[in-house]
Amino acid sequence: MKAIVARDFAPIDRLDYADWPEPEATGDTVVIQAEAIGVNFPDGLLVQGLYQMKPPVPFVPGMEVAGRVTAIGPGVKAIRVGDRVAALSTYGSYAEKVGAPEATVMKLPDAIGAADACALICGYGTSHHALKQRAQLQPGETLCVLGASGATGIAAVQIGKAMGATVIAVASTEEKRTVARGAGADTVLGYDNLKEELKTVTAGKGVDVAFDPVGGDAFDALSRSMAWNGRLLVVGFASGTIPKFPVNLSLVKGFSVVGVFWGAFTQKEPQVYAANMKELIGWYSAGKVRPVIEGTYPLADAASVLARVIGRGASGKLILKP
């Protein structure tokens, strides 16, 4: 079969579209014929050796896949050949066929397309965990979302609204701000003078919850814009700069800085993760959340597509298709 192969930790343009061994249906393995493969920011970090973990090389990147089951191992209990499913992994999904342990595979309702299913896993899964478990966002609170036109940002906007928050979306261009507005944001801002803008739109109170996948100068602005008992969520560093936090701000302003590592959460709390996905699928069915799929591209174009995601050039979710 064909797959995208990282021969070594190297720049994204070194990824290779090449032959790769097909997965075998052994043990509790479910083999999935890929119909849609999600492209995520961590994929780009992983192939460059910049992620929290490093798989043995060579390897196939990719965290999420949706498609139809073509084979199951003898230890598989609930999944059957022919089922429509989606699966989560740390890597291995940029391929025509993907093997995944049954515990990481979920059946899909007929109403959810393969591309939307991929978007719901990592992007929406991260934002949901961040706002529900880590921030414990409450109805009526004010939520500020940075990177609000990206996959996790759009998810945070929509999930924040589903949870009853007033949502302030922040994006870098007018085009991206239009996307954030379309996702349901109550107020849309740019990054210029962010501290003063947040002070104005919150009437000096500050934001109760801040969702930050960007880092850099924007984190600094947020850390000076938090309300008393606020929660500043550290989700990622898409700007390329990991900020240094003056802890005295947390003391005098009475807010918490809360880390969000969704990948570790799915492994350490699988039952909570499963409950989260059930809630997300319910919200999807009810029309409360709806992924924005910017485009679908051939699997062979994975390197250029991933480079766009890493370069913050995408608005919404990008999908690969074998």
**Gross CATH architecture of the largest domain:** 3-Layer(aba) Sandwich
**Average pLDDT level:** 96
State the domain count. Answer: 2
Biggest sheet details: 7 strands, mixed
Share of residues in strands: 25-35%
Q: Write the H/E string, N to C.
A: EEEHEEEEHEHEHEHEHEHEHHEHE
Shape: globular
CATH fold field value of the largest domain: Rossmann fold
Counting H and I runs of at least 4 residues, what is the number of helices? 10
* Text of the CATH class of the largest domain: Alpha Beta
Name given to the CATH homologous superfamily of the largest domain? NAD(P)-binding Rossmann-like Domain
GO molecular function: oxidoreductase activity
Organism: Neomesorhizobium albiziae
Pfam family, one: ADH_zinc_N
Protein name: NADPH2:quinone reductase
What is the gist of this entry?
The protein is α/β, with parallel strands linked by helices and 322 residues long. It is 32% helix and 25% strand.
Describe this entry's structure for a reader.
InterPro entries: ADH-like_C (IPR013149), ADH-like_N (IPR013154), ER (IPR020843), GroES-like_sf (IPR011032), NAD(P)-bd_dom_sf (IPR036291), Zn-ADH-like_protein (IPR051397). It comes from Neomesorhizobium albiziae. GO terms for molecular function: oxidoreductase activity. This is NADPH2:quinone reductase. Residues 10-320 form the Enoyl reductase (ER) domain. With 322 residues, the protein is an alpha/beta fold. The protein folds into two domains: 2-108 and 292-321, Alpha-Beta Complex (Quinone Oxidoreductase, Chain A, domain 1), CATH 3.90.180.10; 125-263, Rossmann fold (3-Layer(aba) Sandwich), CATH 3.40.50.720. Helices cover 32% and strands 25% of the residues. The protein has ten helices and 15 strands. The protein has helices at 41-47, 114-134, 151-162, 174-182, 194-201, 216-223, 247-253, 262-268, 270-285, 302-310; strands at residues 2-5, 16-19, 29-38, 64-72, 84-88, 97-101, 105-107, 142-145, 166-170, 187-189, 207-212, 226-234, 256-259, 293-298, 317-321. The strands form three sheets. Strands 3, 4, 5, 6, 7, 14 and 15 form a seven-stranded mixed β-sheet that branches. A six-stranded parallel β-sheet has the order 10-9-8-11-12-13, sandwiched between helices. Strands 1-2 form a two-stranded antiparallel ribbon. α4 (174-182) links the parallel β9 and β10 (187-189). α2 packs across α3 (151-162) and α8 (262-268) crosses α9. The longest helix is centred in the middle third of the chain and has 21 residues, at 114-134. The chain is globular and about 60 Å long.
